[in-house]
Amino acid sequence: MPLDAALPAPRALLANLPPAWRAPLAALAGAALILLPAFAEDWADMAGQWWNSSTYNHIVLVPPILGWLVWQRRADLARLVPTPWWPGLVLFAGAVFLWVLGTFAGFDLARQTACVAMLGALVLALLGPRIGWALAFPLGYMAFLVPFGDELIAPLQTITAQLTIALVHLSGIPAAIDGVFIDTPAGLFEVAEACSGIKFLIAMVALGVLVCHLCFASPWRRAGFMVLAVVVPVLANGVRAWGTIQAAQTMGLAWAGGFDHIVYGWIFFAVVIAAVLAASWRFFDRPADAMLVDVAAIEASPLLARLAALQVRRLVLLAALAFLVLGGQAWSAAADRLEAPLPARIALPQVPGWHRVDYAPQLWWEPRASGASHRLLGRYADGQGRTVDVFFALWSGQSEGREAGGFGQGALVPESGWDWRASGPALPDGKADRLLGKGAIPRLAQTHYRTGDLLTGSNARLKLANIADRLALRAAPTMLLILSTDASPESAQPAALEAFRRSAGPLDAWMDRIARAR
To answer: For the Methanolan biosynthesis EpsI domain, which residue ranges apply (predicted)?
Structure first.
């Protein structure tokens, strides 16, 4: 059979489109083809995470799912008439502004969320509210294109460790827990980031939302299924970690590690999904032939009729969309060029009662501060033999690739031999973390950020301050100070850092003195 006989020609496909849809779809396709290259860097970063990170591999299925969801609605959509809608332009402007804020803060999640939101707003602007209502679920499901969830890793590590130690004790294995480390007769186990269960959880949430839409009509049953989709992966991950420890007691660490990788990666996840679906099957209450779009209700809705009346000429709308994109990117580029004046050299100052000694940690520890103009790392000691390590970094500005609070920056450098253990004692103006080097060397690290008059340990507060500066196109330096110690005994570490802080005086003034900012 000739190929042109087997597949409909493009002209035939266009001919089958209702006349009212041809110009709007052409405008939508053209705008999308311009929008995607305009933000190509962000889309490429997202695609790289989908393909290269096992946490987000499930997202490669989301685009075809979205296409299928729209295809299901094609007959109903053909009965509606698209209209250019100026409030969609307001939504698009909000998405562009979110992207600008994301670039100002060096916050990839905000930038990527904005890029996905722009596509959704584009649909609303060019096709109108009635089409938007008909496509409400696919437009909302686009949120799963964004690779989110890294913020949950640390709490999930802690939850998994607590569940695991409880199951280990119930099974009669003598064990002790210290943060995310579990010490057993077979060896020391760490609930690492890869073992937090985040990949299982976010994939299950994406599946759960889709199942709720397709298989349930009752909002209560949908809510119940989503509770299962969240709780079961967390509990199952604790069981998996316990099973690994249990296997190690009899078969050895190496065998248990390989078993955990194969079973959890290829079997365990599928078994848990099948079990959740099987347990929920009898509660599915949405008929297979239920309508996805109630066209009559959409056409009869007074609210949608009033909203649809807010029209604008399509060419004016497209011109405004282009202006917003160009304006947002120009604003971001101007902020990227901001550079605060910095001294040519900086040095760690004298601290009363303390003196500088050679930096000789038990295990090399050097925080990361990518893009910083100046970095200092040194060790102080006092007359009582206490030692404190000081790391200081100074940036002339914050932009992509040089964020003080970016991923992998600060006290815990990935794949450096140091692992996060637990949060340290609370600080009013900083953040404390307990680290463990090579499974044996404890270290307490206290992180402080400084910009303008702000002194904080909160990465979120730092980013908000950086955003405010860049919105106003105001150049301001950013500083990072980490006070740390690996002294023994571990119980004396908080007191050593507190003694150093008292001797140094107010940390905000101390940091300003190092940076010569006041």
So the answer is: 317-506
